Amino acid sequence: DIYDLFPELYALRQVKSAGLSEDNQHQLALARALVTRPRLLILDEPTRGLGQAFVHKLGNLLVRLNQEFGMTILLAEQHLTFVRRVADRFYLLHQGRNVAQGSVTQLDDPLLSQWMTPNLTH
What we know:
Elements: H1 2-5, H2 7-11, H3 22-34, E1 40-44, H4 52-69, E2 72-76, H5 80-86, E3 89-94, E4 97-103, H6 109-115
Parallel strand pairs: 1-2
Antiparallel strand pairs: 3-4
């Protein structure tokens, strides 16, 4: 099942993790987390430092894990384009406090302008 989710890793299965590209190291870390088939996956800023191609693949993977496998994903993320693509609900934190929550469709620019700096809203 893991190789179905991460087909690139199959060809690299004999390579030590230190010899993998950064994107493949991220895939390997996710694969390790998923091998036990958790019901909940917690990710802290998973797009930080990643290229756009891998971020797109990660978004597809998270949607698939949720829709096909029923996995709940708790995501702490600042890139709102990514959040809007993969999330159903949001909780907006400001200085450690929950200041807003709801359906991700409610995560609009007026709400964001109250709490976030402009460079984080896209």
